[in-house]
Amino acid sequence: MVLAAGIAVAQPGLPLMLQAWFPREVQRASTLVTLGLIVGEVAGAGATGPLAPHLGGWRGSFLLWSAPALLALLLWLGVPGRDAGSAPQRHQPPVLRSGLLRSRLMWWVAVLFGAQSLIFFASNTWVPSTVQGGSGSTAATLDLTLLNAVMLPVTLALALTRRPFVRSRAFYVAGSVCALAGSVGWLLAADAAGPLWVLLIGAATSSAFTGLLAYPPSVAAPAEVAPFAGLMLTVGYAAAFAGPVLGGTARDLLHRQGAPFLPIVAAAAVMLLASLRLPHPRAAEA
What we know:
By secondary structure, the protein is mostly helical.
């Protein structure tokens, strides 16, 4: 609970910090933050297995991975204070009482973020057990690896692009179509082309996550960025929790191996709907 609370407290402040520190480079800065998250995930997951036997088991692994967190804390304490984003908020009314909760844009962005979160976490949960041979098979290992590994080149490509994509409706629609194609493909033919379907799912969710993390600071006033991001993340991680549970419920009710992917397909359809409801860039700026 303490570990998760630390992440929950810190993460909604990132978009506000990006807006305050890099007002002209929000997209680039946010993409680099996302790239750091993905590199940490891939490196941590890939290195823990081989290192754990040499570290005395899971306790040694926890000690090992606490070292980067401690190092980051020490480096962060050495960063000069920069309060550029706080001053404009002092004379504004509390955001949650000034209409943000009635913003259709905020809710569609939150739904979009929630849908991609459900797809990603539920896919990671159910891909291994819904492939032929089960979670111990070579196919399950390959598919799960590809699902996560594809995020790295996708995010790196987004970090290198100079073309604006954060407020692009077409960008999210394209990602949603890939997520829908991948989830439907896995549901109908997981054993025929499993690697292709998970590559589509991983690319779609990582691109959407990258863009959405930068969305609040790209369209909202400084006083609204942190609450906007906080509500978006709340909906997103609630969906991330619900996805695996709904998949298990579907399997218990239908007694079919691929049933856990039914909620994932539904989430991909919702993701596409939410993408289509986003405004065009000029409307979002207005």
